[in-house]
Amino acid sequence: MQPLCAKMMHMDKKEATSFDQLLMDVIRQMGVLRPDQVLPGWSLSLSDVYALNILAEHAPISQQDLGAALKLEKSSVTRLVQDLEQRGWVLRERDSQDGRLRLLRLSELGARMTDEMHSHMHERHAELFNQLSPEEQAALMLGLTALQRAFAHSTWPPHAAD
Q: Is 14 exposed, middle or buried (0-12, 13-18, 19+ CB in 10 A)?
């Protein structure tokens, strides 16, 4: 049973919708369950998108650090990096200070593709955001900031096991 605070009344409907259902609907409507919807012409999973973003912002980075940032298990990160490397988007290089360590960074193709992805996603997000009234925009920003803070102080989702 859901707590009463988790249900909201739609202004245009007389039915209550739970936080769970609203969140699942938004995720589904954003197309994140269909890798071909993230960037037309490219098949990208959410893990791909986040990995490319992290590499664009923090490279060079170790595979272990990438896994920690993504909160993915070691085996999942290995498969993810192998896939990105096979696509020609990621390069592995030996660390100049520790020859045993391999560092990851975007290739030129990966950097161009990531820039294209950022541009496309920014346009899609701006289109959605601009359909909201200024009051709704402020409320959404406040709500998302609060949700992000709640995640940061929560034990959910569980951290990946190594």
A: exposed
Residue with tokens 């161009």: 112
- What is the set of domains in the chain, with CATH numbers? 42-120 (1.10.10.10)
Tokens of 37: 């919807």
Q: pLDDT tens across 10-60, in order?
A: 545 545 567 778 877 887 777 667 766 666 667 788 889 899 999 999 989
What is the C-alpha to C-alpha distance for residues 55 and 118, in angstroms, rounded to an integer? 13
Q: Is the distance from CB of 88 to CB of 110 less than 8 angstroms?
A: yes
In DSSP notation, 126-157 reads HHHHTTS-HHHHHHHHHHHHHHHHHHHTS--S
